Amino acid sequence: MNVETALQRLKEKGYKRTKQRERIVEIFVQQDQYIAAKDILKTIQEDFPGVSYDTIYRNLYLLTEEEILEATELGGEKHFRLGCETHGHHHHFICTTCGKTKSIEFCPMNSINENLKGYDIENHKFEIYGKCPQCH
């Protein structure tokens, strides 16, 4: 996804194009990894010194709700990344050093379901954490 595609998706949903939103999306397009909200704030404040943490968080959650970004929790803190180009159901390996991700096409839920007979599973999230080849 590129900046224009993301901003067009927001426009179609009735959201305004703002310079701050545009800059947030640019940051994610430039980096293929999960990024902590505090790091986004630090980068944004270089261009918009008065921007607040609340403004950044509101925009990150809006972008996540509109499926432009994906969110996960790393080290007890919310991290975000540009939505994955892989279509359909999939999971990720996430490097705990650099935050880069790799899509995993296999879903372990089939074998897990065998152990949960009688349970009504509504949703799941499966991520693998470790070091990528560059950080290992």
Automatic annotation (TrEMBL):
<comment type="similarity">
    <text>Belongs to the Fur family.</text>
</comment>
<dbReference type="InterPro" id="IPR002481">
    <property type="entry name" value="FUR"/>
</dbReference>
<keyword id="KW-0678">Repressor</keyword>
<feature type="binding site">
    <location>
        <position position="135"/>
    </location>
    <ligand>
        <name>Zn(2+)</name>
    </ligand>
</feature>
<protein>
    <submittedName>
        <fullName>Fur family transcription regulator</fullName>
    </submittedName>
</protein>
<keyword id="KW-0479">Metal-binding</keyword>
<feature type="binding site">
    <location>
        <position position="98"/>
    </location>
    <ligand>
        <name>Zn(2+)</name>
    </ligand>
</feature>
<feature type="binding site">
    <location>
        <position position="124"/>
    </location>
    <ligand>
        <name>Fe cation</name>
    </ligand>
</feature>
<dbReference type="GO" id="GO:1900376">
    <property type="term" value="P:regulation of secondary metabolite biosynthetic process"/>
</dbReference>
<dbReference type="GO" id="GO:0000976">
    <property type="term" value="F:transcription cis-regulatory region binding"/>
</dbReference>
<feature type="binding site">
    <location>
        <position position="95"/>
    </location>
    <ligand>
        <name>Zn(2+)</name>
    </ligand>
</feature>
<dbReference type="Pfam" id="PF01475">
    <property type="entry name" value="FUR"/>
</dbReference>
<dbReference type="InterPro" id="IPR036388">
    <property type="entry name" value="WH-like_DNA-bd_sf"/>
</dbReference>
<feature type="binding site">
    <location>
        <position position="89"/>
    </location>
    <ligand>
        <name>Fe cation</name>
    </ligand>
</feature>
<keyword id="KW-0963">Cytoplasm</keyword>
<keyword id="KW-0408">Iron</keyword>
<keyword id="KW-0862">Zinc</keyword>
<dbReference type="GO" id="GO:0005737">
    <property type="term" value="C:cytoplasm"/>
</dbReference>
<dbReference type="GO" id="GO:0045892">
    <property type="term" value="P:negative regulation of DNA-templated transcription"/>
</dbReference>
<keyword id="KW-0805">Transcription regulation</keyword>
<dbReference type="InterPro" id="IPR043135">
    <property type="entry name" value="Fur_C"/>
</dbReference>
<dbReference type="GO" id="GO:0003700">
    <property type="term" value="F:DNA-binding transcription factor activity"/>
</dbReference>
<feature type="binding site">
    <location>
        <position position="132"/>
    </location>
    <ligand>
        <name>Zn(2+)</name>
    </ligand>
</feature>
<keyword id="KW-0238">DNA-binding</keyword>
<keyword id="KW-0804">Transcription</keyword>
<dbReference type="GO" id="GO:0008270">
    <property type="term" value="F:zinc ion binding"/>
</dbReference>
<dbReference type="InterPro" id="IPR036390">
    <property type="entry name" value="WH_DNA-bd_sf"/>
</dbReference>
